[in-house]
Automatic annotation (TrEMBL):
Transmembrane segments: none
Top-rank taxon: Bacteria
SUPFAM superfamilies: SpoIIaa-like (SSF52091)
STAS domain ranges (all copies): 1-94
Protein name: STAS domain-containing protein
InterPro entries hit by this protein: MlaB-like_STAS, MlaB_ABC_Transporter, STAS_dom, STAS_dom_sf
Pfam families: STAS_2 (PF13466)
Length: 94
């Protein structure tokens, strides 16, 4: 299993760079895990990238999991009502 950490912003300002990095990551293995614990800010552009990568992995027969969702990630997922659609376990912190 290959692992990747995303750090900092996952926003419209970093979308192109992060999309490229995630596409390259998808090519590395069939079992992939992306750690989102250090994402400090995320907007709908970042959310779209996560959705796109999940669909691309599924289309390619790969297992891509998002883990350790930061508060910023959880907020945009909850706001857009997409938390359950990713199919990844989400641990809520109090």
């Amino acid at each position: 299993m290959k692992n990747l950490d995303i750090q900092g912003e996952l926003t419209i300002y970093t979308a192109a760079t992060e999309k490229q990095r995630l596409q390259e990551f998808l090519e590395q293995d069939n079992q992939l895990e992306v750690n989102l614990s250090r994402v400090s800010e995320m907007d709908t552009a970042g959310l779209q990238i996560l959705i796109l990568m999940k669909k691309e992995a599924e289309r390619s027969g790969k297992n891509l999991r998002y883990v350790m969702h930061s508060q910023a990630v959880l907020e945009i997922m909850e706001l857009s009502n997409t938390t359950a659609s990713f199919g990844d376990p989400v641990v809520l912190h109090s």
